[in-house]
Amino acid sequence: RRLYFDTHALVCLLEEKGFTTQQSEVIVSALVKIMNTNLDMIYKDMVTKVQQEIALQQVMSHIAGVKKDMIILEKSEFSALRAENEKIKLELQQIKKQVTDEITKVHADNKLNLNLEKSRVKELIEVTRHPVLPVSRLLFKEHHAQQDRALTQTDRKIDTEVADLKTMLESHKLDNIKYLAGSVFTCLTVALGFYRLWI
């Protein structure tokens, strides 16, 4: 250890102030001991440059390991989200296909029913052209009213089925939008976590 003052000059100064040489040397040696003790206490709490570099390398290696783990986690998370999105797309396509099949089936049934009713009405019109009894005319009117009621009921059933299909499609769309929004927010959260980690 270096002493940053001249001990001999201090001894001479003390001798000039009236101390003897022995007293001056004792005072200076006591001051040197006190300084050495203080320096020992300070050095216990201090870290050497080599120790500081070792600690810095350990911290940097730990940060690199965390970054690597975060990159692996990000890749696995994004791949899982992509797989889930593909699964949802396939389910939506299947639902759309089912809905279109149901709609075409309902339209085909309606066309068939309407064609049958038209043919019946034509037959009844042909029958009414010939002279008939009043009783048969009354029966024809009742039959015509029944057909009208059946047609209105069929139209109502078609309307309710189409409305139910539209409601089901809208609910599936809303569920898909909610899931996609959750996925986007999850990706943003992971990206912000990476951004904070690298900053």
Molecular structure report:
α1 (7-16) packs across α2 and α3 (49-129) runs antiparallel to α4 (134-198). This protein has helices spanning 7-16, 21-45, 49-129, 134-198. The radius of gyration is 49 Å and the shape is rod-shaped. The chain has four helices and no strands. By secondary structure, it is an all-alpha fold. The mean pLDDT is 80. The chain has a domain at 141-198. Helix content is 91%, strand content 0%. Its main location: mitochondrion. Keywords: Coiled coil, Membrane, Mitochondrion, Transmembrane, Transmembrane helix. This is MCUR1 regulator. The chain crosses the membrane at residues 179-198.
Measured between the Cα atoms of the first and last residue, the distance is 42 Å
Major beta sheet summary: none
| Class inferred from helices and paired strands | mainly alpha
Average pLDDT = 80
Subcellular location: Mitochondrion membrane
Organism: Loxia leucoptera (White-winged crossbill)
InterPro entries: CCDC90-like
Family: Belongs to the CCDC90 family.
Quick summary of this structure?
This protein has helices at residues 7-16, 21-45, 49-129, 134-198. The chain is mainly alpha-helical.
Secondary structure blueprint with pairings:
Blueprint: H1 7-16, H2 21-45, H3 49-129, H4 134-198
Helix pairs in contact: 1-2, 3-4
